[in-house]
Design brief:
Number of strands of chain A: 12
Number of domains of chain A: 2
Distance between the termini of chain A: 34 Å
Largest sheet of chain A: 7 strands, mixed
Order of helices and strands of chain A: EHEHEHEHEEEHEHEEHHEEHHH
Oligomer: homodimer
Helix content of chain A: 40-55%
Shape of chain A: globular
Radius of gyration of chain A: 21 Å
Strand order of the largest sheet of chain A: 3-2-1-4-12-11-5
CATH architecture of the largest domain in chain A: 3-Layer(aba) Sandwich
CATH topology of the largest domain in chain A: Isopropylmalate Dehydrogenase
Largest interface: A-B, 55 and 55 residues
Amino acid sequence: MKIIVDAFGGDNAPLDILKGCEMAVKKYGDVQIVLTGDEATIRKVSKENGISLSKMEIVHAPDVMAMEEHPNQLTKSKKNSSMAVAMRLLSEGGGDGLVGAGSTGAMLVGATLIVKRIKGVKRPALSPIMPGDTTPFMLIDCGANADCRPEMLCQFAQMGSVYMKAVAGVANPRVGLANIGTEETKGDELRKETYKLLSELKNINFVGNVEARDIPFSVCDVVVTDGFTGNIILKMYEGVASALMGKFKQVFKKSLKNKLAAASIMGDLKIMKKDLDYSEYGGAPFIGVKKPVFKAHGSSDAKTFCNAIGQTAEFIRADVIGQIEQSVGVFEKADENAEQGE
Amino acid sequence: MKIIVDAFGGDNAPLDILKGCEMAVKKYGDVQIVLTGDEATIRKVSKENGISLSKMEIVHAPDVMAMEEHPNQLTKSKKNSSMAVAMRLLSEGGGDGLVGAGSTGAMLVGATLIVKRIKGVKRPALSPIMPGDTTPFMLIDCGANADCRPEMLCQFAQMGSVYMKAVAGVANPRVGLANIGTEETKGDELRKETYKLLSELKNINFVGNVEARDIPFSVCDVVVTDGFTGNIILKMYEGVASALMGKFKQVFKKSLKNKLAAASIMGDLKIMKKDLDYSEYGGAPFIGVKKPVFKAHGSSDAKTFCNAIGQTAEFIRADVIGQIEQSVGVFEKADENAEQGE
């Protein structure tokens, strides 16, 4: 399979991206890479760092989509950026999937406007795989759609189920609705209406509302929410963990006695921290567009980026898109409740 | 001052509530207590446990509002519960403030329907004081109003500022809008519209949007949000901290070496945990009703409940209600954008 890689996306591009690609072609025998970006720079950086470009081809793109640029510029002033070229290449059949570590907003624009939605899907979602206490779970949506309607959340539930079953191998994914209480009458209007619709869906295993305090404890495999709330959940995960780790560090550095104690358990603490670090999971698929598009973390190093390529390969192999397309009838059924003109 | 206490609210009622009241009358010289609940039980439990009822009076209430009961029953089948009697007593001038550890939903019903809103205030809010990395902050609203309009969030900002200034002594409270990006164009429709209105308010120190990942780092003193999102933030705080603590415990118990290391820093870890435990902050005021109503944690022990009485006393002394009433003109100005008929 051919995986298109935006060689100039992310904090450590292009060096770590190229290193990650080299690792991936060695690790995954069936993977070939199509790099997009400035060809001379790619060749120069590879040569200087002894990176082999075997099983890789380059499609030249002179520009770079910077992180601070408005996402909409992707199809305007930055249509010759490595990201825009990668998206067009994917759309035109030049590869089976795409992975990039660039701006999430710009990748969403590319996925939606260039790769385009699967027919019948109302909105693509950004849906990271998060570390839970015992098993990982998918958070869908986590920022692609700030304002959602109930039928959009139903599609997230269905698409998330397909992904977790096909890619993560969960036999009958438990779908939970992120809410502020477990009873079906809890929450805002969006949640109350969504609860009813989810209860009626035959093709998912809806386990009801899940409270935020239970989300980290792996109580379900797919956590369904609007993009605003999902982003708050994602970033609270990050913020609280970071604040707490900071407090632990203060304790560990407080005295010589504490420093010695910390040193003796540091190895185990590092393993624990890695287990909890969602960047280790490689990133987040955009679900609902016609071809696999995978967002790697902006801070990806070579190894994390190699993992992201592996996830994208799995996304392609499992034919998630095909399975979603086959379910389009189901989605269109959910559409009956939707507003006109969409 | 007279503080009304629901003697039968919370997991540890009435014993820990009575103990907490005894501690409070000793600790705060100007505080008298009015207990509501079954008089015979209160006297029996006090006698059996050697609790002095000095500076306390009892107003008999035969029923108890159970946690699992629908909040609306407070004014119906449970109108003779200790909570309902406490709320009516407060409303009729039988005390200067009220503190209870019973069901949050039922207390909200009581605060709204019995104590009633301050004229001009659209919605009362539940607004806990949360531990931040360096300084605590108020989260307003955190569950009283799942569906909010922009002008409601503006009032939360104003009322939260008054409280943090008057009770917590913050000179010029920094008000932040919880959002999914820092730019003013970020977020859902509610956030975009609220951002504009908050920017125009003269009587608050609006510092812009705050991302969820920065909330634990004390980047502002008042975090403004709708009750749905606020509840998600509150419970993510709890859930992520709890999951992470669990992981640390696993590491600490993994081997004899780790157990020894953990034992030597356990004292400092306990202090840290206490700093982060928001139940130590005593609870959450309901802001926007005519008299001070304070929600203590359901799991309050005697000491935590005593702290909650102290917070309620401060709420009364600082005349937060008076200051909000004086600002009513400002609130009514914000009302011009509201729907008719409210």
